[in-house]
Design a protein that fits this description.
single chain, mainly beta, 5-stranded mixed beta sheet, 5-stranded antiparallel beta sheet, 2 helices
Amino acid sequence: MKFRSLFLPLVLLSPLALSAPNHLLKHVKGLSRDYYYIDFSRDALSYKHKDMVGGEHEKHYLLLGFEGDRFKVVIQSESSDVGYVMPDDSYIVESNIWNEKEQRMTITVVVISQQTWVDISFSAYPFAEYQLDVSKLTTSKF
C-alpha cells in the first residue's frame, strides 16, 4: 500500500504530465474542413501540432484572443506556402519572417479588438506536411 501511495505522485510529476498542453477546447471535423479551437487560459505552454493537409481539405486553428494578447505562430514545412494567418480587422500581423534555410515562417499577431478568434489556416495541393507551434507572448489586461 505504501508503494502505491508513493508511485502516484511520481507519475503525476513526470515530464510528460508537466509538459502536456491542455489547449484544445473543441475539434470540429467537417467534410472538407477541420477546426481546432485553442485557448491558452488553462495552460501557458506552447501549443504544438504536427499534421498533413492536402487536396481540397483545409485545417483551421482558431486562437482565442483578447485585446492586447500577442501570439507567436511558427509554421515549419517543406512547402513554404502551406499555412498562413487569415486577415481580419480584429488583429494585426506585427511581423512575418521567412527563414529559407530552416523552411520556417514566424508570425507575430496582436489582438486589437475586445475579443476574437485568430485564424491560422492550412491548405496544400496535392499535399504537404507541417508543424505548428503557437506561444502566447503577452496576456491582455482583462
